[in-house]
Every structure is written in C-alpha cells, then in structure tokens.
Amino acid sequence: MPDAGALERYAAPRALAEALELLRDGDATIVAGGTDLMPQSHSGKARFGSLLLNIRRIAELGGIALEGDTVRIGALTSISALLASPLVRERLSILAQAADQFASEQVRNAATIGGNVCNASPAGDTLVPLIVLDAAVELAAKAGGGIETRTLPLQDFLTGPGRTQRRPHELMTAVRVPLPPAGFVARFYKHGTRPALDISTISLGIGGVRRGDRLERVRVAFGAVAPTPIRARAAEALIEGRALDAAAIEAAAEAAHDEVRPISDVRASDWYRQELVRNMTRRVLAHVAFG
Which of 18, 70, 134, 285 is most buried, most CB within 10 Å of its CB? Predict the structure, then answer.
C-alpha cells in the first residue's frame, strides 16, 4: 500500500474550475474509474499525494461530440461508452475495435479514456489506435482567475512508462481526434493469452486512405514494444503510395521487425515480440489493403 500518512484530504468537485483550483498546489492524486490506480496502490507502485481528487462528478469532462472536423472525447468517457458510440464506431472504427478488446465488461464500464491515456502504459489499449488517428490530448490549468488550456499530440504527451507531460497542476480534459478523410481504413490487433482480459504482449494498428491497391497517409503504430507506443516510420515509408503486393507487405513487415526494441518480461521474450510484430504486421496490413 502507498504511504497512507501522505493522504490528508479528499475532494469530489462538480465543476472543472473547482477541480483546477484544488490542483494548484500540485500535490494531488487524481482518481476517476480507479481501474489502474487501485491495483497500483495496493502493489506499492503508486503513492497518494496529500489530496485525493475524485473527478468523476465533473460533467464537463464527459461526452463524445463532433466539433467541426474534430471528435472531442471527454476524459471521463468510459471504454463502454466508446464502444457504444455510433460516432466512434462509424468514424473512428479502430478505436472501437480496441475498446472491444479492452478487459472485461465490468472494467470497461468503470475505466475511462483519460485514465488509460494518463496511466501511460506502453501496452495501453487505446493508445495505439489514438496514435494511428493522430489524436491530441487537451490539458487545462487554473491561471489567475481563468482557465488556460493547451493541446499536445498524444505521441509527444507520452514520455515513458507511467510518465507524461501533464504538469502537477494540470488536468487532462479531453482527447481530440481529427476526423479521418474519406477512404480511410484501419485495423487494430492485440495479442495475449486471453486478448480481451490480459495486458497485451504486443498491439498494433495500421491505417491509411485506400486508393485502389495503394495506401496513402499511412500510419503504423505498435504498443508494448518500447517505453511508449511508437510509430513505425520506416514501415510506413515502404507502404506509402505503393501497390500493396506481397513484396511490399513483406518489406514493411521486415522493417517493422527491425524498428521495435521490446524487452523480455513475464509475458514474452524480446525475440518472441519481434516475431509477433513481423507476422502480425504482415497479416493486418493484408486485411487493411484487401479486407
């Protein structure tokens, strides 16, 4: 358990401004669904600050809405809500695919997209599809008498296992996803002993705009193969604008194998992860190209 002596106060504000005021001293532990925080606290991986800040009641942090050419997903949106959203299923289908493989139904009902992003696990299920979709993270802080916001690309926001660019006095308020262009296709794959319940051994997402037998604006991303989810840019370059024949797919799979730098742990060896990357890139790319 974390050091209980550090925890002095509990607050459950109902307004964003109130939460940000409480965050000004920067010594707070934020909780929403608690599906990451509670196991980490029991294992000793997480320590509580002097304030436990429950943000679950802040209506401003919820909802999925189309704002111009961007989908805004509130940080408190549950994984179940992502899966149930027609907007997500129809326009951001790779994110719905990942939500469908996210833990159990009970966990999906409690877990939030903001928690999954801020937990910053290299194997976080929503992170790979969000990187494929060029998502950004919206952060808010109290400055003077008002609220200031800033937006960072998700890949820049993640800096290492459990580490992000969120400042102690900031709160993640939303994920912002640009609407994919016409013809965009994408697939998500997660490998594990029981993929929907286990932490992924690897995960991958591939997306692009299909023009006949070619893909443009290609995005290839992997999880659980580096300190953060990564873009496989060498593999992308080998696919971009090329006819997706067997030779191009094989070249991209080999490039992906060489780009990742996984570790060995209780779930898999580094060698096995690299082999999975090669084989699954080949398979998923064929589905994206011809499925």
Answer: 285
DSSP structure class, residue 19:
H
The sign of the torsion formed by the CA atoms of 143, 144, 147, 148 equals negative
Q: Which CATH architecture has domain 186-290?
A: 2-Layer Sandwich (3.30)
Joined tokens for residue 261? 């730098």
pTM for the model stands at 0.92
The Cα 256–Cα 275 span in angstroms is 10
The helix/strand/coil state of 97 is helix
pLDDT tens-place string over residues 174-198? 999 999 999 999 999 999 766 556 7
Integer Cα distance of 112 and 69 in angstroms: 23
Q: Is 61-178 a domain of CATH 3.30.465.10?
A: yes
Please, are residues 172 and 138 in contact by the beta-carbon 8 Å criterion?
A: yes
At 32-84, the pLDDT tens digits run: 987 777 777 776 767 788 999 999 999 999 999 999 999 999 999 999 999 99
3-state secondary structure of 30: strand
Domain ranges of the chain: 4-53, 61-178, 186-290
- Of the chain, the percentage scoring pLDDT greater than 70 comes to 95
Determine if residue 120 is left, alpha or beta; phi over 0 gives left, psi from -120 to 50 gives alpha, anything else beta: left
The residue type at 245: D
DSSP string, 216-266: EEEEEEEESSSSS-EE-HHHHHHHBTSB--HHHHHHHHHHHHHH------S
Determine the average pLDDT of the residues in 224-247: 95
